[in-house]
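From the shared-data thread, chain only:
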Amino acid sequence: MLFHSACDMNANLCRSTKFQRLCAVLLSLSLLAAGTKENVDPKKGRVTTNPTSGNRYSLEQEIQIGRQSVPEVERALPLLPADHPMSKYIATLGQKLAASAPGYKFPYTFKVVREKSVNAFALPGGPIYVHTGLIELATESELAGVMGHEISHVVMRHSTRQASRQMKAQLPLAILGGVLGATVGGAVGSLAQMGMSITAGSVFMKYSRDAETEADMVGAQIMYDAGYDPQAIVSFFSKLKAQGGSRSGPQFLSSHPDPGNRAKNISSILSRFPPKEFQQTDAPEFLAAKKALANVNEESAAQVSAAQKPALMSRLSMQNIASSNFRDFQHVAYALRYPENWRIDGDADSTSVTIYPEGGYLNGTLAYGLMISGFQPKGKSSQELDDGLLELMADIEQANSDLQIANSPLAFTLHGRDARKLDWFGKSAVQENGHPLRERVRLIALLGRSHVLLYTVFVAPEADFEALLPTFEHVLDSLQVR
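Structure, as C-alpha cells:
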C-alpha cells in the first residue's frame, strides 16, 4: 500500500527508469507476499490452501481412509472399463481440473460408474466417481463444473471436517449413519463416520449447505483457472431442479442441497477475476466419448441395489434372550450395566459402543440391541439440549432415509439430568416371508461433558420391542454420565 501511495504522489518520478525499476521490484515483492498469504475462506478471496483448523485428521490419514474405502465402494458399483473412451476422457478431464485445484495435491483418481442415475461423489483424499446418467445429461462445461465441485469437496476436506465436528476430548463421536441398515466396519465404518453411506450402489456424502457454498465457490475458481465457464454449474443445477419429480434428478440433489444462493456466490467469486474467454462448445473428444456410451449397458439404481447382498437376519426368540444378571461396562465418558449374555463391541475409548444379544448384530447391521455414542452440536444456546437434539435427528434421518418419526421428543429426567426420548420406525434387517419387519428405534439423549450430546439408541423389530423394553430400561437406568 505504501508503494501505491508513493506512485500516486510521485507520478513524474515513476517515469524515470531508475524509479520504474524500483517500482517493479516493490510490486513484485508485494505480489509475492500477497500470493503466499494463505486463505481457506472463498468468501474472502481466492482459496490457496486446505482448511486444517479443528480437523483431527491429517492429510495422510484422509488419503488413507479414501484408499481403504475404494475396494469396498467399487465392489458395490458397476464401473465402466478403464479402457472405454469415456473412462479415458473423464480421467483426462479430471486431471486437468485437479491441476488447477488449490492447496495440497491430493492423489486424485476419476472413474465412471455405469449407472443411469444422475450422480457424482468424492471419497476422502481424492477418489472421484461420475455416473453415466450425469454425463449423458450434461454439456462438457457442466460436466467440468460437477467434477470441479466434487474436487472442491476434497480440497476443502468436507468429509473429515464433518467427522471432526462430531468428535471431542476423550469421547470420540460418531453419527448413527450407516449403523442401522447399512454395512459398517473397516473402511466402510470410516465412511459412516464421515457421514457417508452406501445406498443402492451409490455413495452419499451428506453435505451441509455451508459445505455446498464452499464447493460452489472453490469449484468456480477451479473451472475458471482450467478454462471452463463457471456459470455452467449454475445451469446444471437448474437442470436438476427442473427434473425435481423424476427418478434421476433428486439423487444428486439429495446429497448436494441447494444453498439457496448458488448463482450469487459464483458471481461473487468471478467478480474478483479478470474477464476471460471460455470454451463455448463441446470438444470433439467429449462428443466422441459420449457417443461411445450409446452401446453401454447401464444399470438402474434398483438393479444395482438388487445385485448387492444386504445382511439378512433371522427373528430371535424372546425366551431367555436377555439374562437377568448384568455386568458393568466402564467408558471414559459414562458407565452402564448390560445383560451378561449379551456381547459388546467397543472398549473404554471407543467412538461408539454396540451391545447386542447373540444373532442381533451381523456385518455391521444392528437389528437387536443398543448403541451408545455422542454428538457435538455446532453451537451453544440456552436450549442446548433441544437444539443439539434437532441437529442429531437431522443427521440420523439424512443417513437413514427409511426412518419415520413416531413422536415428538419427550422431556424427562435421568439421574437428575434433563433428557429427551423419541422413537422412529424403519425397516428391520430381520425378514419374514421375504419381507422386512417393521423396526422401532428409540433414541435417548442428554448432555454430557464439554457440551457433548450423549445418546443411546435401542433397536428391535417392532413386534419384539416391548418384550425387550424391560432390558432396555434397566440399561438406561444404569447409565451414569461421568
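The longest strand covers residues 417-432.
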